[in-house]
Amino acid sequence: MTLKIKYITLAVMQVLFARRRVYRIILPATLSAIPLSALADNYFNPAFLSDDPNAVADLSHFEKGDSQAPGKYHVDIYLNKQLVSTEDVNFKATKGGQDDTGLAPCFTTGRLEQMGVNTKAFPDLAKLAPEQCVPFAAIPEATTEFDFEHQQLNISVPQAALKQSARGYIPPEEWDQGINALLLNYDFTGGNSGGDSKEDSYYLNLQSGLNLGAWRLRDYSTWNYTSGEGDTQNKWEHISTYVERTIAPLKAELTLGESYTPSDVFDSLGFRGVQIASDDNMLPDSLKGFAPTVRGIAKSNARVTIKQNGYVIYQTYVSPGAFAINDLYPTSSSGDLQVTVKESDGSENTFTVPYSAVPLLQREGRLKYALTAGKYRSTNDDQDEVNFAQRTAIYGLPHGFTLYGGSQVSNDYHAFALGAGLNMGDFGAISADITQANSTLADGSQHDGQSVRFLYAKALNDLGTNFQLLGYRYSTEGFYTLDETTYKNMSGYTGDNEWKDEDHDGKQDKPVWTDYYDLYYTKKGKAQLNISQQVGKIGSIFVTGSEQTYWHTDEKDRMLQVGYNGSWNGISYSLTWNYDKSPGEEEADQIYAFNISLPIGQWLSSNHSADIYRSANTTNMSFGTTTDQHGKTTGTTGINGTLLADNNLSYNVQESDGNHGTSNSGNANMSYQGTYGNLQAGYNYSDGYHQVNYGVSGGVVVHRNGVTLSQPLGDTNILVKAPGAAGVELENATGVKTDWRGYAVIPYATTYRQNRVALNTNSMGQNVDIDDAVTNVVPTQGALVRAEFNAHVGVRALMTLMHNGKPVPFGATVSQKAGNSTIVGDDGQAYLAGLPLGGMLEVQWGEGTGQHCVVKYQLPESAKQQPVNKLSERCQ
């Protein structure tokens, strides 16, 4: 009988080479494609592979040409073209379907609910048992397509069948609280100087922690030692200790111990007590920050496209009638939104939604809050640790309004704040608030006062101008903050300096403002601005400034920065002027600076790294000059860059000279990011002075599987577990490799987001294979989450299997004790990876008796050194 399929081995080879596991089959060249014509229905005759039907396993799954074997596959799942997850999915044989694999994915109703499908909207699905597979035909217009070659499952579900959730939403059920572990972060630096003066200094920063379930315990301490010129200081300091945990239903963090209050309504304060505060990181990116709600009306099933500054930032499909879009991603700057509604008949309606934002604006319906109670905490001995309570709330109202307020209460202080923000469209965004405070100071005097604050932001896109922030705060003479009421005296130094009142009248004629406070000179008005202007494609001009005035004095605190920076063809440059005038100083500090950096490494070499996991080393030459208001000028020339394959060795060498008696100086520094920590070393010199400095930093993680050393830890980290896979590099993690046991730590994970963890398979040894080199984790705040990889360590072998004097049937399955499997090719040959030197293999080519056997094998120690071992074994 002739066959319908053109190449009888095509389907078989697709299965044999599929990445269902990393184990591959090497088929002899004798197994070649045989072209045939098509006259009858699909039927695969085993005689085409062998005259003996018993020499061929059951290959009925491949009769349909491209059909694949049912089973479990590790696939990327896309729902409506959005990546949902990467996981093992069980596929069952089916007829029909949107592809030629002959497979259908098996998902329970619970798993589809987690993926965002509203299964409760379909009565037929409610009848299914919890463990039953959902027939996608029960969801109108829903389809699945399995891209077998790329191991990608594409699921299409109509919008009406999905839950109403924001883009990027990750259900709390998928958040990973991490594993129990002890954590230690250390940073040690030292310096030894000589010349006209000698000094030895050492500094140690220790941050330790304990993770138990959802609870995080953290402690922060430092040690500082200085010796020189007959004076020695040796001091341990405890900075803070606190416990925190995530409260998912409230989208908040609970903190017990020593921490800081938020700074949105009141100034941030240190406290020792308890705080519960909402955490914006728990929201998807599309709901963080402020973005307006876009409303409109569609006449039919329409496509809505939203552009900002010429770029498409959002696109969706809506049903006829009124619609509201409230999950726009917040933009880094203001800019009007251009909304286009394209109807099903091709007609378009375009309108503009003006948009600007200030920091306090919240989305419609969003409540941001914080509740704090405890003792005021300061590092200054001149302040009392008073009991206080604080509460703040910010709520987004319709039509661009935001309402916010709060209160601070202690024995000697009562303050209440109330404010509102508004997106005014073409006129920008503004917020205004007033704080009423009643204070009792150290001398027993009582004061009432108010403080008013205005903030404004606006972008002029046509001109390229962005008023990022214009602000002004005015405080009456009787207004004091909570921290000012905690001072034990009306004036004094906050440092170790000793101040004498020459007039003995309790007041100071000429205040010294460095490390000095005086409650008679309270803050009056403060203006601030932050403006940038784009100059074509070659740079931008910026202006940043502030001015603080005080009661009972004409002294002012002024700061102004004006500059231009940009880049062109890899050349970066900047020109800056800084002005700084503090109260009590006779004149202002003014500095003019020019810097330029040239990518000489890029110019001198046209070679680029061919390894997709690596980037080429960099080499840059820099030139700079600074001049102060007296004409004192310093010029600097330097070279910096990176070395080694992973760019984990960086260096910087600089030489400086100047006029007006400025001494020549120079420095050379080098830092290395390693698997077990970071190292740094440097040398500085100038006339009559030289110094050697050095440092080491890193992390220690104690967990159930042992101890792992790492680079400095972040607050949230990922523990990579790939037992046996030693020395394997991690993608996008400079200098991070698995240790001798196959463990590594990736610091600074992103909380409540999918973190992609990938092994660089090019760095794996010959004796290591990985089932899947990529996984994703979603850590909570402060968690140490485990990213597990199934590494198979052992030899590779091309084994010829004989049963009753004949080769094992073609297509038979060979399974290892560890659960790994492969398929037998022609002449009984099977390619196996991750084999121990000795063991058993189970071979099966049918369901009947006599259609399975067991192989016992033993390889010599020298097999570990061979890329592929060839051997023949009996299957009994």
UniProtKB/TrEMBL annotation:
Instruction: Specify the protein's topology with respect to the membrane.
Output: Multi-pass membrane protein
Q: Which domain of life is it from?
A: Bacteria
InterPro entries (UniProt xref):
Fimb_usher, Fimbrial_membr_usher_CS, FimD_plug_dom, PapC-like_C, PapC-like_C_sf, PapC_N, PapC_N_sf
Q: Which keywords does the record carry?
A: Cell outer membrane, Disulfide bond, Fimbrium biogenesis, Membrane, Signal, Transmembrane, Transmembrane beta strand, Transport
Stretch forming the signal peptide: 1-40
Q: Does the keyword DNA damage apply?
A: no
Molecular function in Gene Ontology: fimbrial usher porin activity
Query: Where is it predominantly found?
Result: membrane
UniProt record similarity statement: Belongs to the fimbrial export usher family.
Tell me the protein's name: Fimbrial biogenesis usher protein
- Organism of origin: Klebsiella michiganensis
